[in-house]
Amino acid sequence: MSAKRRETARRCEVLHKHRLRLVGRSVNARARVVDSLFQTIMASPLKSLVCDDGRYQEAFELFLQRSSEHQCMQDFIHTQLPDILASVGDGKPHLNVIGVGSGAGLIDLEMLSELHQKHPAATVENEVVEPSSQQLHNYKVLVGQKPELGFIKFNWNQMTAAQFEEHWRLKKMTKKADFIHMVQMLYYVKDPGATISFFQHLLSERGKLLIILVSGQSGWGKLWRTYRHQLCNTEISQCVTTADIKSYLESKGVSYQSYELPSQLDITECFTEGDQTGELLLDFLTEVLDFSKTASAELKAGVLDLLRHPDCSVESQGRVIFNNNLGVLVIDHQS
Questions:
Q1: CA distance 224 to 238
Q2: Which residues fall within 8 angstroms of residue 65, CB to CB, at 6 or more apart?
Q3: Residues 6+ apart with CB under 8 A from 241
Q4: So what's the pLDDT on residue 188?
Q5: Number of C-beta neighbours around residue 218 at 10 A
Q6: Residues making up the binding site for substrate
Q7: Least-confidence region, from 6-15, 81-90, 248-257, 274-283
Q8: Is the pTM above the cut of 0.85?
Q9: How crowded is residue 23: how many other Cβ atoms within 10 Å of its Cβ?
Q10: Which of 31, 20, 49 is nearest to 132 (CA)?
Q11: Which residues are annotated as a binding site?
Q12: Which has more confidence, 40 or 249?
């Protein structure tokens, strides 16, 4: 899993969203929030990878080096997204965009560029929703390096999706969005279905909501279906795939367009005992800190067997290539 994971990578900002819950609370209330979170984490013999931000960052960078995730997203943005965006706004001179979990903005700006190509005369107001101050800073720096973005007004919201929803309701906002994107972020909301429902209701009549997650047909999907209870700490993240979101949408009678983005991840070193690269990859795959050292022998053997199974990976020229496919869902305004 990963980026705008963050970038797409917002994964390394999960603990930060819990910290933001402390703002404005009394000392005692803050202590209760911290105690609740870490009692939940420590109750499990397996410690979440996000508890060690340095280790997480290192694992995520390795994931990006070893996978084609960003490339497959960029291919989609530049080849298929333009057709999706063509009908957005219906000729309006001004377009409203919301990026939920925008990270450092790289993927956001590529999508905004395609929106501008399709609607060159329109100005854009872009609501950036991101809980990490560092990621927002990086986003602002990136924008400052691109004077061609003068047609965009950026509104910076250092908050989680849930906090943005609360803020929107308290302000009784009536503004509608022409394009909303949620890239690799639904893992980090308490109720993905409710989050989708809220943002869908913000769409204008011709608006589009874009969701990118790991595919239900990916190796992630098989791994989570098999070891959800052992590996997923639901106080921190949800083991959710596009298959789960499709089921939710269908249960609500919501139509959607679906796209599959082929992506691969080389996990060969995971099967060499004591290999530092392999251990780091295993931490990322399982989201468990020091998985090789802390998981039971039975769990470790089961995970390794599954990762090598044809349902998750293929072997080619001596390498083990994990199915890292992503899924894209596009939802329209619902009357």
A1: 10
A2: none
A3: 213, 214, 215, 216, 218, 220, 221, 224, 327
A4: 84
A5: 28
A6: 69, 324
A7: 6-15
A8: no
A9: 10
A10: 20
A11: 69, 324
A12: 249
